[in-house]
Design brief:
Elements (H helix, E strand, L loop, with lengths): L33 E8 L6 H12 L8 H5 L1 E3 L5 E3 L4 H4 L5 E8 L10 E7 L12 H6 L2 E6 L8 H18 L2 E11 L1 H12 L6 E5 L8 E2 L6 E2 L8 H10 L1 E7 L5 H13 L4 E7 L9 H17 L1 H13 L3 H14 L5 H28 L3 H15 L4 H14 L8
Parallel strand pairs: 5-6, 5-7, 7-8, 8-11, 11-12
Antiparallel strand pairs: 1-4, 2-3, 4-6, 9-10
Helix pairs in contact: 1-5, 5-6, 10-11, 11-12, 12-13, 12-14, 13-14
């Protein structure tokens, strides 16, 4: 007998943050602080199948819908089919080309200052969800809070995960974000989606804070004999699981009065059994199916951040090892991470210098590649770009892709390979 635990759970909110904020152009947002409404266009339509397909593939589903706006209006039926939701006044007023986000920026955030953490919030219902009591925690820990406005429990799971990824993409482009401190969080059904998102994409999210709702990626036994709590990943990618098991920080918060406590504890036990390295189970006394207070919110944030600061010196040492192996991109990222999280340690200055030297050399090679392209020496340019990809790895992905595309477009039709 298969027991299906409902993914869509509607909760009563304890508090709401008032709406009515005005929207300003994205280009003016980079240095603003406090509560802000952000609005960004969807990615190009030509990328829909690739971007949305990456998420739907995780769920073992076909790509739902044909546009971002259509996907936003779909729901996932119990039989796994995607179907349109009943229209209401709010959905009819949505801009088909953009998505809005509720955001909070600590008062000391500066675009040209230190990098800040990012907490992507997946809410169980539409509207602003940031709890007033949490603001000081975000301030004290230098974390930006951004919530897609239209990704409630009723939305398609693929849409909700996609919007979490979109939030990160837009935030990294517009703001000064610490890539190691990008977290996804949510309450109830949003907590479940957060657990999915962090495990699907551990290269994007450093962890998840799942409040009164979470899932393990595989089926796990329930208390009642013959029953299970269903997993969410029918055909898991083991490289992603391996990365998440080693690096992802997962906080599973429930309450002694929360009806999701049994499933949360079962998920935690499954993570422990599979030896996931950084998983915390927080049970709040007398808490029901509701938001935790600031004290417990901060406990979760501390757990998400702690491994980064504790391992900063080891990360610096790994950077030296990678540089000696000529893996310059990985070395640079390690040095930069160590410098961000090493606080006042003696190695921080050297880490910054080493990272800066690698970045300078990297930029020089990109300039040289561009010169070769402008001189129509496309074979030499392609060779240099391939060398950059080998030496700098993931750090160079975006630049390498752009250069190779430029080279392709400038080649003659009879010589289109790179």
């Amino acid at each position: 007998m298969r027991w299906v635990f409902p993914l869509i759970v509607v909760v009563l909110w304890l508090a709401h943050v008032a709406n009515g904020q005005s929207t300003t152009p994205a280009t003016t947002q980079a240095s603003r602080t406090g509560r802000i409404v952000l609005e960004y266009p969807f990615p190009p339509a030509s990328e829909y199948n690739k971007l949305v397909g990456a998420v739907s593939k995780c769920y073992g589903l076909p790509v739902p819908g044909k546009s971002y706006h259509e996907l936003r209006s779909l729901v996932l039926s119990p039989d796994g089919r995607s179907k349109p939701a009943a229209p209401d006044a709010s959905t009819l007023q949505l801009d088909p080309n953009t998505e809005k986000y509720n955001a909070y920026f600590p008062n000391d955030y500066q675009r040209d200052g230190k990098p800040f953490g990012l907490l992507v919030w997946i809410a169980p219902e539409s509207g602003a969800a940031l709890q007033l009591a949490w603001r000081k925690v975000l301030d004290d820990h230098s974390i930006i809070f951004i919530e897609p406005r239209d990704a409630p429990n009723e939305s398609h799971s693929v849409w909700r995960v996609f919007m979490a990824l979109e939030t990160v993409r837009n935030a990294k482009r517009e703001f000064n974000i610490d890539p190691d401190r990008v977290y996804v969080a949510g309450l109830s059904g949003g907590g479940r989606i957060s657990s999915h998102t962090a495990v699907f994409f551990p290269e994007v999210f450093g962890g998840a804070f799942c409040m009164v709702g979470c899932n393990f990626y595989r089926d796990v036994p329930a208390e009642e004999k013959g029953m299970i709590y269903p997993g969410f990943w029918p055909n898991p990618v083991m490289n992603s699981i391996k990365l998440a098991r080693a690096n992802s920080r997962l906080v599973l918060l429930t309450g002694s009065r929360d009806y999701n406590k049994p499933s949360t504890k079962a998920a935690y036990d499954a993570f422990v059994k599979e030896q996931w390295k950084h998983v915390a189970y927080l049970e709040v006394p007398e808490l029901g199916h509701q938001f935790p207070n600031a004290e417990w919110f901060e406990k979760g944030i501390n757990f998400l951040d702690a491994p980064l600061f504790a391992s900063a010196e080891d990360t610096y040492a790994r950077g030296i090892e990678l540089e000696n192996k000529k893996k310059l991109g990985d070395a640079c990222l390690a040095y930069e991470s160590a410098a961000r999280h090493g606080k006042d340690a003696a190695f921080v200055a050297d880490a910054r210098q080493r990272a800066s030297a690698i970045r300078t050399k990297y930029k020089q090679q990109l300039v040289r590649a561009n010169e070769l392209i402008e001189q129509k020496k496309l074979d030499q340019a392609a060779s240099l770009v391939r060398q950059v990809r080998t030496e700098y790895g993931a750090m160079s992905n975006d630049d390498v892709t752009a250069f190779l595309e430029t080279i392709r477009t400038r080649r003659s039709p009879t010589k289109s390979g790179v």
